[in-house]
Amino acid sequence: MPALTRESLPEYLRSWVYFESLSDEHLHWLAAQCQRCTFAVNQAIFLEGDPARGMWMIEEGRVKIYKVNPEGEEHILHLLGAGNTFNEVAALDGGNNPAHAGTLTDAVVWLLPTEALNHLLKLDADLARKIIKLLAARVRRLVGQLEDLALYSVTIRLARFLLKQLDDPALSGPGVTRANIAAHLATQPETISRALRSLEQAQAIRFDRHRIVIEDEKLLRTLAAL
Question: What is residue 1's predicted lDDT score, i.e. its pLDDT?
Fold first, then answer.
């Protein structure tokens, strides 16, 4: 996709499910409030506990949302790519950032300030309903993620992660290393390597250089206990 400009931003915003039904007037007003930000690989976007500046929208690149335990180890909550948004909750409730956000690659992201988002919510009830619905879906996914961590082995969690790549390209590609997958699945890179070999030996996946290719989706779903 060509780099966004201030002129092309309104049409880009309309492609997002949040804003698809906004009037042209509100859409152009919203575009005028957005701030374009560029980040280098492995750069912090914001820190946990700092005041939230607003909702973020990824134009290009890969982003991780993560927490750090007292020993300094990362746990990645979300792996995100172009077309994803993040930090909506903090933008809506006016609280602090609930986690850290950082880049896995060079990235271009747009900031929709909290004040602008709240102003639009007062004007557009349909927008408010869509945001509530999408946030509810994210809560469901987070509950499912917690269930996976508590109930299933690393191999099953990894199989489920790989299957999610079919619907969400942000979970694969540049910047998503075995170390990042391990941090997302609450384990160690060596354990991920062993689980990958196990799935390869079962002929559910194969390796194409550094890419993981699903060879037998039906078998992988069986191994994922789905």
Answer: 60
